[in-house]
User: Fold these one by one.
Assistant:
Number 1:
Amino acid sequence: MTDILDTIPRLTLADLPTPLHEAPRLAQHCALQRLLIKRDDMTGLAGGGNKARKLEYDLHPAASGAYDTLMTVGGRQSNHARMTAAAARILGLDVKLVLGGPVTEAVQGNMLLDALFGAEIRFLKENDDNDAMMSEMRRWEEELQSAGKRPFTVPLGGSTGRGALGYVRGMRELAQQFGGGAAQVVVTVGSCGTLAGCIVGAARYMPGARIVGISVSRSTSAVRSRTAELMRECAGLLGQTDAPDEESVEVYDGYFEEYGAITRAGREAIVTAARLEGLLLDPVYTGKAMAGLLDLVRLGVLRRDVPVIFLHTGGLPILFAYEEELRPLAQITYR
Ligand SMILES: Cc1ncc(COP(=O)(O)O)c(C=O)c1O
């Protein structure tokens, strides 16, 4: 029987399936029987990351020929903005970004890549509030339309019901790789689309999986309500009337202080993953999620006898914007 998921149109932007790797030394480090890494940092689009799966669905209408410009919003080190900019170029479109946050002179990490893709950027100084960035994008969209351009806009993080389908598909892929046994899947949570897709996808394809979110910016209650909205939209597109509800969203919000700011535990997790597994995590997203994973194992919230699968959602370019914070790690003898 055809899976309705395969009848919903999408673009091909990601290299799939991504690998599922064992992480035996990191497992031993936290006394887990088994730890695996789902390598969605290797989706390929402009350096990889979770947004490639979401953009496959979100950007399908943008490739119809009716648009000439892609627009989106994000924080100054937004992976979503960088990957949308790359996708725009793949589709032969112009790209305009509204970014926000602390102003620094340096153009580093994702912002450097945005520049390379020729993205025109409007930057909200010291303000990465979603509503403010969305209003700025709407104003700019109208300006462009008045000038005869045909912009297509994508909301923060590509988190829409359609975008979340990327992670319904991602969970089907993971179920094929891992099999049907019990698992605890740990996911980084920002704008909630990845988490929403994982929960809807797990209910469909991997019922033995417990999905555990680690928030990097929102409170538990804010994640729950936004994720539930996205799950309703996403499940609706799949013809389901029984979307998982708010109560089914397991998320922890104790592993960030302020969006974007590196935490001590996050920095430690980045170093541990790099030194034990040669695995690169970042200070804004996946480093915090790994810090959460290690702590939840220690607290007994995650079970040691059930495999843990860390969904690596990417973010590598961000590392290069945190040189100041990471520089003390360097052990160099100049001769
Ligand atoms: C590297 C990385 N991980 C996780 C996330 C969170 O995904 P979502 O916005 O779908 O919650 C993001 C979003 O920006 C990201 O860039």
Number 2:
Amino acid sequence: MYLTLYQPLMFSHRLIGLLLLVAISTASLFAAPDIEIGKTLFKNNCASCHNKNMKDKLTGPALGGAVERWASYPKEDLHKWVRNSQALISAGHPKATELWNQWKPTVMTAFPNLKDDEIESIFLYVEGVFKGTYGPKPDAAAVAAGGQNGGDRGFSTIWIYVAFGVLLSLALFLWNVMSDLTYTRKLALGDTTAARATIWDKLTSKGVISLVLFGLILFGGYSTANNAISLGRQQNYAPDQPIKFSHATHAGLNKIDCNYCHDGARRSKQSVIPGASTCMNCHRAIKKGSKYGTAELTKIFTSIGYNPNVDKYIDNYDNLGMDTITEIYKKWISDNYKSENNVKDLTENAQTEIENQWNEIVAAMTSEQKHKIQGPIEWIRIHNLPDHVYFNHSQHVTVGKVACQKCHGNVEDMQTLRQYAPLSMGWCINCHRQTDVKFTDNPYYENYKTYHEELKKGERTSVKVSDIGGLECQKCHY
Ligand code: HEC
Ligand code: HEC
Ligand code: HEC
Ligand code: HEC
Ligand code: HEC
Ligand code: HEC
């Protein structure tokens, strides 16, 4: 009789152990939305088109309140929109069609790789900023209001924890019943040495320990991978830069040669970002932009110390106090405001607007590392190979005659520059396997006589980069 009861119990105990494992793994794999992750994702993917104050429009509409505007549709619809808005428009979705009619022909970038919880994280951040509940120093009220968002955010995790708790108690209960049964069974079979297992015995049993270890490893692996991904600058990385510099305007519309600004690419390992003095070659004359007026170009002047009111570089700029600097550039912004709006005096609103513009300029041109407004523009580096990799621009651009666009995409169409290539080892190697070395008329290859001869005689149709050592480890690794 004991045996018949014992066996199914034995089985259900294993089953519950298994269910527990599944619960642990889903709990750690299905990350809950996180406002900080949302912030990073927003900055890297959305901020180029959607205003980060969530209230004003930019290239795209203000995102604040978007969740509410989409509330009458299933949640997946908004996720589908972010992953591929054009597909949703083609499918005739009413909200998508409405948006498109309002904003066409501007197409929103598709983000097929964003996961549900990542999209949720973005909107958590969007709503946080929009409602003022997310900020550097939230006050008590903000924290309380944040609880509303928090409810939303905790929803999926809470259920996972509840399910986890239920399963855990069930497992412990069955465990207990089972060890009691084992004990009684042993007694019934005439084993006089049988002893009841203590709590300690149960907690240190193999089953429990391996379960805990498994959980830890899973959790550890997950968070390590997650951190590694958010640390690594990756494909499509397109951070907001301190100045809204557009390659589409400069390299595209105005057809300025890449080498004019990135002169290093031709001649050296590094391609180099141009300094403010290069910008001044043109912006001494173009002092106001058609798009942002004084808001962006003034930043260049503050970096290098150019006084646009009198068209002169400022003496001893590096040692100037902030009051004097503010006076110079506020005058510039105000004068332009007046002439643009054809007014003599500034209204209170206008004054606030100018104040805001100046504050934004100061914020963009200073940072935790750079306390002074004076000095180089702190462009955020986008491409970044690991230190153990050697990459040389001139080898590719000048010797290999590879076009910038092969590796950087159509930069001349990019409003905000983004990393086009994965910069993985496979990416380098594949190209070296497929690309012909430009041998003819290339002084660099004078000494490769045999390849030359073979090519001339037609014994060889091509020499790939792999033939000249492009797959050798030490060529790319220090
Ligand atoms: C290349 C510019 C661009 C980028 C990048 C971009 N969007 Fe958009 N977004 C738009 C435009 C433009 C629209 C208006 C609809 C249209 O033209 O397709 C839009 C509309 C939206 C809407 C609908 C807003 C409403 O009021 O209903 C949401 C939501 C949205 N975007 C979210 C995002 C998110 C999230 C990201 C980042 C992951 C993002 N967008 C990145 C340009 C962009
Ligand atoms: C008027 C000057 C100018 C011209 C012309 C120009 N760039 Fe740039 N480029 C910049 C500046 C400034 C930055 C840094 C800001 C940014 O990332 O947008 C930059 C950044 C870049 C970056 C990213 C650097 C990083 O941080 O990894 C690449 C790649 C690049 N440019 C390629 C090109 C190519 C290709 C062309 C020609 C089609 C070109 N640029 C033309 C000024 C210029
Ligand atoms: C060879 C000339 C040239 C150089 C060099 C140059 N620019 Fe420009 N820039 C232009 C032209 C032309 C425009 C378009 C002006 C317009 O539409 O108002 C422009 C527009 C801009 C704008 C947009 C202004 C607005 O409000 O619309 C910004 C910002 C800008 N440039 C920043 C820079 C920076 C930063 C550098 C240096 C890295 C730089 N430019 C170097 C010619 C140049
Ligand atoms: C064979 C591929 C390839 C070609 C061609 C190429 N680049 Fe790059 N570029 C890269 C890689 C890889 C990096 C990252 C280098 C690093 O992190 O050390 C990079 C980085 C850059 C940077 C950031 C600054 C730096 O030097 O790290 C700029 C700017 C840049 N490239 C501009 C250009 C321009 C302009 C051209 C054309 C004249 C060009 N690149 C051609 C692969 C290429
Ligand atoms: C778009 C194609 C392309 C990509 C992508 C590319 N390369 Fe190259 N690479 C070339 C070509 C073409 C040459 C031959 C240049 C020459 O004639 O010396 C070359 C040559 C080299 C050489 C010199 C090889 C030798 O034996 O002299 C090194 C080192 C190198 N590449 C490193 C890299 C690294 C590192 C990456 C990735 C970060 C990379 N390359 C990505 C096309 C590419
Ligand atoms: C054409 C250039 C190139 C050659 C040749 C090359 N590597 Fe790499 N390797 C790279 C790049 C670029 C990375 C960085 C990839 C990344 O950050 O994802 C890398 C990364 C690595 C890593 C670190 C693991 C990783 O993914 O970051 C190891 C290990 C490595 N390479 C070993 C080798 C060995 C062994 C060889 C010879 C068989 C070799 N490499 C040849 C370009 C090259």
